[in-house]
Amino acid sequence: MIFDTDILIWIRRGNREAAQLVEDEDECLLSVLTYMELLQGASDKRHISDVRDFLAENAFRTLPLTENIGHRAAVYIEQYALSHGLRANDAIIAATAVEHGLTLCTANAKHFKPIKELKLRHFKL
Question: Where in the sequence is the domain holding 18, given as residue range(s)?
């Protein structure tokens, strides 16, 4: 399963249900964009180190941005930015999941609902 940024933020905030989602998975993946969002949210170098340690301890694997993912994300923006407010970051995360045939776990399902080929697992707070 591929995890959206919000799930990892909930885990860092101590949400036990979000942590259980990760613990129950055999393979934990994230988009390179999710990785960058986590780093961008860091307040200092120690926080960046904490993010890296957390991902390593939980055996997360980061999926790279490929040409196919970039193309698919651009198509999603063309189709859904005006009608549904889809943002570039979410388009790239969704495209990563679709290109790899993965389910995306997110608490922000409304951001991704218009993308019909995307398999979603909605984490409810």
Answer: 2-122
